[in-house]
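residues and backbone:
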Amino acid sequence: MLILFVITCYNGGCMDVKQVLIKSLDESQAYLTKTLNELTEEDITWSPKLGSNSIIFILWHLARVEDIWINRVLTKSKEIYESEGWREKLGTPVKESGFQYTTEELQSWPVPQVDILQRYATAVRL
């Protein structure tokens, strides 16, 4: 069995792939939190045209996909969306991730509270 171990070095320091991924996700989360704090609810729920995704829909979709990949695929456990009651807290559809939604599904999608969505996204990474 071949095990590939990759080390990335930059700015005088070296990290393995796992450390690079964690650092990247943490930095992205910090940028996202800062940006969300500067937006209004109207900004977050706005979409450029009928059938387009809003910022909050995209954030929900990203958190769901991350939950699926980390929990179901990588660790072979249950998604916390269901196992920890996040679907109920968010008020969003059962067993959905937002993939290939129709215009009608986007229009009827129940918009969750931003702070609850942020807590879900954080919980996925714990």
Notes: The chain has two domains: 1-36, 39-125.
